[in-house]
Amino acid sequence: MSTTEPVLIIGFNRPDHLKLLIERLRDVRPTTIFLALDGPRGPQDEGQVRECQALASSIDWTDDVHTQFQARNLGCGRGVTAAITWFFDNVDRGIILEDDILPEPSFFPFCSELLDRYQFDERVFAISGCNPVPSEGQTNPEAAYRFAQVTHVWGWATWKRSWQRDHLAMDGWYRRMSLTDFWRRTGRSIPGALFWAGNFEAVRRGDVDTWDWPMIFASMESGQLTATSNVNLVTNIGFGENATHTHSGEPDLMPVGTARIPTAPIPVQLDVRAQDWTLRKHWNATFLGTLDRLRKLATLKGGRT
Question: How far is it, in rounded angstroms, from Cα 299 to Cα 305?
Fold first, then answer.
């Protein structure tokens, strides 16, 4: 399989991960590649960041390679936002992969087909090949994809029109959506509403440095949905000590499969069953889970370890 979709690779200081992703891309030979790397946090990162920058020369199957190497570290929030903004300053649509995501080859035609289908459909925010929901948690597991409220960003694609809605600054987020809309888009559950309100408020306060929660809020605010593969199409190899956030555990994903290409169109409607499963099982947005998060927050504020 090959692809003509522009591909953005986002990395930082993990040359081993980046090398594996580039080798995976060699199998599908994207004709246009953008490589964005954040800068070092200090001397401890300089060597690894330089190794990542040098890997740009290993993308040798196309001459259409663009690079954005930050001179200093911008962090997960501003760094990734700057990378995606740069990407969509140059293209109208494309595929976005962080350096620890290895897509299955059928991920690429899956994204291309749905990028074509929904390019001018303002109800659709993005395409995702990342699936944590088993078939029993899906309303129609025989379909190639479903619609989700939240974009799972371990292997995704979107259009410039969607990214222009993103706002990294979350000041006043609670005034930008009615309580009725917020309730509906966070799963019509108290734990779901508290889970997302806590995430958005943590970004607003600066307690969490990330780019994806503001993007998720932007899609909720606009009432848009993400076409999500019912079969998982990606592997996340980024869990470990050198990760920025995911230092332990395993990625909560279904086993990798093959996309059902060509896909049959489905109604642009939220899969409520899958959303409920995701809230309860993937994010632990339950009453007990909420109490556990509150206990952890109280421990942090109390200075205990």
Answer: 7
Q: Which two tokens stand for residue 256?
A: 């990798």
Cα distance between residue 127 and residue 118, in whole Å: 9
CA-CA-CA-CA torsion sign (72, 75, 76, 81): negative
Alpha-carbon separation of residue 85 from 6, 108, 178, 195, 197 (angstroms): 14, 21, 28, 27, 25
CATH of domain 1-99: 3.40.50
Q: Is residue 299 very low, low, confident or very high in pLDDT (cuts 50, 70, 90)?
A: low
Tokens of 262: 């060509």
- The amino acid that residue 129 corresponds to is G
Burial of 116 (0-12, 13-18, 19+ CB in 10 A): exposed
Identify whether the C-beta of residue 87 lies closer than 8 Å to the C-beta of residue 156. Answer: no
Half-sphere exposure at residue 242, Cβ-oriented, CA atoms within 13 angstroms: 14
Provide the H-helix boundaries in 153-286.
160-163, 179-185, 190-205, 212-222, 272-277
Tens digits of residue pLDDT in 121-174: 999 999 999 999 999 999 999 999 999 999 999 999 999 999 987 778 899 999
Residue type, 147: F
Query: For the chain, which residues make up each domain, given as ranges?
Result: 1-99, 103-305
Rounded Cα gap, residues 218 and 224, in angstroms: 9
Q: Where are the beta strands (DSSP E) in 38-188?
A: 65-69, 93-98, 101-103, 124-128, 145-148, 156-159
Strand partners, 229: 145
DSSP structural state of residue 270: B
Instruction: Kindly state the DSSP code that residue 135 receives in the 8-state scheme.
Output: G
pLDDT of residue 296: 74
Backbone φ and ψ for 98, nearest 5 degrees, come out as -80, 160
Reduced to 3 states (helix: H, G, I; strand: E, B; else coil), residue 57 is helix
